[in-house]
Backbone:
């Protein structure tokens, strides 16, 4: 955890400690000190961070973090209302860090909301998210393009990074397109191909999925599919056939 506010750090630590299930590491006020420890081998799954540290803004910390040669970047969770901050240096859609998908912003929240969101975020890291989305694509379409599946995985990952409903093309498909160096339309078409392949196969699992989410039209739109897959995974709903999406054994969350 990192923040200029020592009192806030104590509140977060006390709440998560009482709740249990979280392995809490050292707290930091200085971003420079945290970066030094990470480069020296400090390992953590999630960095819980306020927008301001004692020596730098959190966006500056993110830039420096990306310059570190770490074997694995931790997920960074911001705990302030950056969406409405006038001091915010740039928008998410234009931010070159956003496509990397290693940070998210938690808007207005309660301590219980924070703990629940952290648990979901930990349980759905990119590797697990890829595996679970692939299982769904295999259930629904059988054969599919790996690139199209990657578009879906990364779109769902971005949707997980914000509690509010995001603009599909500007805030979700645009970062994915930048990461793959293609157009927004190419990403949209790739996800639509997954939908069309699932429609063509017409398997019971796909029909049950559509019925469960009650789409407005016979086939879901790109945005509807992204947010329905997010809801399916977020609610820890078992796979509609063989239970392929059951949660892995619960582990402690390291901060």
Residues:
């Amino acid at each position: 955890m990192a923040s200029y506010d020592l009192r806030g750090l104590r509140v977060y630590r006390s709440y998560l400690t009482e709740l249990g299930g979280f392995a809490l590491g050292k707290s930091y006020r200085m971003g420079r000190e945290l970066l030094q420890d990470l480069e020296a081998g400090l390992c953590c799954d999630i960095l819980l961070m306020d927008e301001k540290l004692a020596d730098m803004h959190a966006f500056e910390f993110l830039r420096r973090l990306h310059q570190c040669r770490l074997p694995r970047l931790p997920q960074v969770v911001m705990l302030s209302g950056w969406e409405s901050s006038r001091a915010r240096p740039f928008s998410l859609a234009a931010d070159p860090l956003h496509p990397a998908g290693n940070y998210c912003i938690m808007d207005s929240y309660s301590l219980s909301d924070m703990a629940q969101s952290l648990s979901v975020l930990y349980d759905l890291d990119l590797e697990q998210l890829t595996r679970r989305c692939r299982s769904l694509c295999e259930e629904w379409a059988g054969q599919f393009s790996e690139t199209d599946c990657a578009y879906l995985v990364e779109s769902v990952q971005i949707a997980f990074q914000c509690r509010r409903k995001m603009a599909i093309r500007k805030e979700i498909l645009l970062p994915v397109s930048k990461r793959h160096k293609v157009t927004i339309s190419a990403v949209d078409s790739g996800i639509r191909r997954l939908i069309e392949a699932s429609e063509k196969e017409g398997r019971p699992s796909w029909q049950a999925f559509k019925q469960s989410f009650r789409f407005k039209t016979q086939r879901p739109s790109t945005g509807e599919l992204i947010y329905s897959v997010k809801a399916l995974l977020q609610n820890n709903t078992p796979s509609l056939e063989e239970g392929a999406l059951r949660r892995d054994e619960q582990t402690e969350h390291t901060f």
